[in-house]
Amino acid sequence: MTIAFILVAAAAAAQPSLEAMELARQVAAHGALAQIAPVQTQNEVEGMIEDHPEFSDAERGRLRAIGKEQAKALIAKAVDAEAASLAAQLTIEDLRALAAFASSPAAEHQRAALPKIIAATMTTLGKVDYAGGVRAAFCAETRKLCDRK
C-alpha cells in the first residue's frame, strides 16, 4: 500500500502545474515551429496546386481552404506537444521569463523577421548534403561507406 502512495505522489509531482502549462503554451504559440509551420504548410498546398494545373479556380480555392483547416489543426497539436515538453523540462521561473520575452516587442520583431532570416540563411548555406559529407569524410579515413551516395 505504501508503494502505491509513493507512485501516486511521484506521478502527481511529475505533472506540470496549470500555470506551467499555460506559460508553456504561450511560449510554444510564439515559438519557431508555430511561426514556420503556416508558411511550410501553405507552400505544400501551393506545390499541390502547381502539380495540378487542371484544377479549376474553385478547386484551387477549396484545396487552399482545406489546407488552412488542416494546418490550423496540425499547428494546434504541435503547440500542445511542444508546451507539454517545455513544461516538463523547464522550471516555472524559466517559463515565466520565456513567456514575458515571447510577448515583448523584441520577440515580436524577431518573429516578423524570421521568414527573411531563414530564407537568407538557407540561401547562404546553399544545398546541404550533411550525410554525404559525413560519408565522404568517413570514407577518406576508413575506406568504408565509399560506395554509397
Detailed description of the structure:
The structure is a single chain. 83% of the residues lie in helices and 0% in strands. It is mainly alpha-helical and 149 residues long. It has a domain at 2-103. It is extended and about 60 Å long. The mean pLDDT is 90.
SSE arrangement:
Elements: H1 2-14, H2 18-29, H3 32-51, H4 57-89, H5 92-102, H6 105-125, H7 130-142
Helix pairs in contact: 2-4, 2-5, 3-4
Describe what is shown at a glance.
The chain has 149 residues and is mainly α. The protein contains seven helices and no strands. The model has no long low-confidence stretch (mean pLDDT 90).
Give the SSE string: HHHHHHH
Structural class: mainly alpha
Largest sheet: none
Total helices: the number is 7
Low-confidence stretches: none
Beta strand %: under 5%
Number of DSSP strands?
0
Q: What is the global morphology?
A: extended
User: Nearest-angstrom radius of gyration?
Assistant: 22 Å
Distance, first to last CA: 59 Å
Arithmetic mean of pLDDT = 90
Q: Helix content range of the residues, please?
A: over 70%
List keywords for this structure.
149 residues; mainly alpha; 0% strand
